[in-house]
Model the fold of this input.
Amino acid sequence: MRDSSPLTRRAALGLTAVAVPLAAATPAAAAATVVGGARLARAGIQVSGVTGLPGKLTASAWLVADCDSGEVLASNAAHRRLAPASTLKMLFADTVLKKFDRTERYTVTEADLADIPAGSSLVGVKPGITYTVEQLWQGVFLRSGNDAVHVLAHMNGGVARTVAEMQAKAEDLQALDTHVVSPDGFDHKGQLSSAYDLTLFARHGLKNADFRAYCHTRTANFPAGGKKTFQIQNTDRLLTGAWGVKTYDGLIGVKNGFTSNAGNTFTGAATRGGRTLLVTVMHPKSGYNAVYEETAALLDWGFTKGSSARAVGTLVEPLSEGGAKVTPSHGTVQAAAGAAGAGSGGPSAWRLLEGAGGTVAVLAGGVWALRRRVKRGSRAAD
Done:
């Protein structure tokens, strides 16, 4: 599942048949870029000025960043493209959340629920019941409900339109590792993101008061029809302390994810002493609690020794908010190309073919097929 061995020439040629076109064709050398800084493309752990990182980190990729300044304090394989699972719902919220007033009411139809993938995590949305937009978002953030996602997507004009808008939003955020196939993050060929991009999604989302409130909500009452309700609990174990995980002091949220094919992913944010840190952990090798334990360990490091770390990169600003568009340079291309080692957590060689303003879907379907075999009956637990 975590094999990142180099692609053979035959495999590379085969992938071109399923490649998704770029917005504009550009030579590979001219298009190559490392968003956030060249060090984020290097192999291995990146940290400067301090030591003492947690010693038992098993994640395939992780990143620690200061939410306010955008400084990346430490990382490993920041741009490695992996299946995001339900952490992709942060991008869904970044894209759709502002479109509907939280008090708006909507009666769900059978058609709204017809395209939910089998095995999805569900909050319990039922056709014929009227929900407020706030309740639907609680279903998304607390229970990671794909049913709530699909209802909101249909309210937004349909799944296809929502996916296209999410991809456009990712490009505006300069999250160029991300390729969106579905709005819910469920396993689909070519659906990929990175620790860097997920951190961008969380940082952008936390600027919105509703996003921040939803991801911090521990429990809520959800409609069951008529005047009946049932309680739902947030599946973020660092927030609730479920399944033997110790709650993290100062935790804000943000979003967890799991499927049987993708493994565990999590982006968390916490505030201590007036400082807010973001940590993303993707695909730890051990059990369900490891993604939370490794996140907590990295947050602890960030609030203590990490406060003296020198930045190894930066979280770029959205283009729509005045962020400078990432443009390639000869030096950056050479540094990134030389650092992209197989199996070392560096970005794949295909990552270096992606233009700064282009669609990141280049060869995504084929890369997915080589990286993992999508099993029938995939399950989403969070």
User: Anything to note?
Assistant: The radius of gyration is 20 Å.
